[in-house]
Amino acid sequence: MYFIRHAESESTIRDSPLTPIGIEQAIALNKRLVELKIDFHQLICSPLLRARQTVQYCSLLSECDEIKIEPLCREFQQDISDFLTLENDTKTESELQCRKRIQQFIEKRQSEKHESKQQNVAVVTHGDWIQMLFEPENSPFSYDYESEYWLDNADFVTLEI
């Protein structure tokens, strides 16, 4: 799986669009993925606008055979003003609740993997979400966790789930 952080957005508060720099980042991400000759079979995307627009401007991702909008990989909702996907979505979550949501995503993906022959899967999500994915409480991977893990905008990491 390729975990991709969305490109730069106007704000991480509410559901904001990409900046002009973010659009350039998404286009550059597309070029990088094309150069790596990755053939994505499935795209899983956060429902937030900045993630969906990253996909829109990264044509390799938008042309996937199967595209799923997945609420489980939306941003960590720390505060009532943060990361709202809908105007009436006013719930916040604790860090523990977010970790449980990430674990649900992992379990769901592992189950789908056994039912499907999908090979290369792209997940377009958020920096906090990816950072929490790497923390020992959630991680199904074997690696040394020494410090906080953070991806720059429109960057990605590859992991086997």
Structural write-up:
- The protein is of the alpha/beta class.
- It has one domain (2-158): Phosphoglycerate mutase-like (Rossmann fold), CATH 3.40.50.
- Helix content is 36%, strand content 12%.
- It contains five helices and five strands, in the order E-H-E-H-H-E-H-E-H-E.
- It has helices at residues 20-35, 49-57, 59-62, 95-115, 127-134, and strands at 2-5, 42-45, 66-69, 121-125, 156-158.
- The chain has a five-stranded mixed beta sheet with strand order 3-2-4-1-5.
- Helix 1 (20-35) packs across helix 2 (49-57).
- The longest helix is centred in the middle third of the chain and has 21 residues, at 95-115.
- It is globular, with a radius of gyration of 15 Å.
- 33% of the residues are buried.
Fill in the keyword field for this structure.
single chain; 161 residues; alpha/beta; Rossmann fold; five-stranded mixed sheet; 5 strands
- CATH H level, superfamily name: Phosphoglycerate mutase-like
- State the shape: globular
- Taking all Cα atoms into account, the compactness measure Rg is 15 Å
Low-confidence stretches: 80-87, 142-147
In which range does the helix fraction lie?
Answer: 25-40%
CATH class: Alpha Beta
CATH architecture: 3-Layer(aba) Sandwich
Biggest sheet: strand arrangement? 3-2-4-1-5
Number of E-state strands? 5
Number of domains: 1
State the helix count: 5
Arithmetic mean of pLDDT: 83
Main sheet record: 5 strands, mixed
- β-strand percent reads 5-15%
Distance between the termini: 7 Å
CATH topology: Rossmann fold
